[in-house]
Amino acid sequence: MPRINKAIELLEHGQPVYYRRVDNPTDQNYDGGLRFARTWADYIDYNMELAPYDIYRLREFMRGLVDGGPTTSGHRTPAVIVTMPLEGRNEHTIRANAWIIRQLLNTGVHGLHLCHAETPEAARAFVETCRFAFHKPGVGQGLEEGRRGHSDEKSPALVWGLSVAEYKQRADVWPLNPNGELMLGLKIESKWCVENCERTVRVPGICFAEWGVNDMSLSMGYITTPPKPFPPEIETARTRIITACRSAALFFQEETGPDGIKEQIDAGIKIFATDGGSEGGAATADIGRKYTGRTMPY
Predict the structure, then answer these.
(1) DSSP H helical segments within 13-153, as ranges?
(2) Does this model's pTM top 0.90?
(3) Going from the N-terminus, what domains does the chain have, and what CATH number goes with each?
């Protein structure tokens, strides 16, 4: 069957993925979904870490994407990955706030991004909370059975254009499940996250990870984020996180611009936030797509 998640399809073919953020509440509604339905981006980072946690607005945004689609590549919608307000301080934080994960997945999004992922136990609870119990890849090999419970799966099934049964079969984590359509990411964005990063990124079911220079700088005592070249302790943290991701065969996500995109592609980075706003982001993505000989329409 064709892929629901456009970003996964590109990564399967070795192509980088380019995303844009939706973090302005004025865009987080049905009309915003209509506007973003044919975006140049491969996936949309729907930011709820700093923007209001409003499930109704997210549901309406997803409905607008469907009504405004399909994408130029023929996908029903761009992939949508939500940056959650939930933080991965420890396992108990994830278990106690599983309702947030359940509500988000039931809107039909294609992935979730966990901020401040400090421990492997938190990452493991994150993966298990996203999965139905009948999905078995990884169970007994670092994971327990999934904890996602029954709810109104009609809503996400409608967004994906599937029956409820088909949605349940395909709503699993990729690449652990090769047929899955959900991407789970981690933000390794503080000195406390770095302490455990080698073990955290090896939790089965995690697809990608990124660092965050702003939060990393704050955790190291800086009032403002230092400019490049970064101080040695910040650059060391970035290198350690990238090395851990490569060792665990995780995709690494980082921000870039037109001057750095080719170099970062050559370094093996596969998921990009493109700076410079909408036009600048599209221009950066265009350079990268031409550089890698991409054939999927954009």
Answers:
(1) 30-36, 55-68, 91-96, 98-105, 120-130
(2) yes
(3) 6-291 (3.20.20.60)
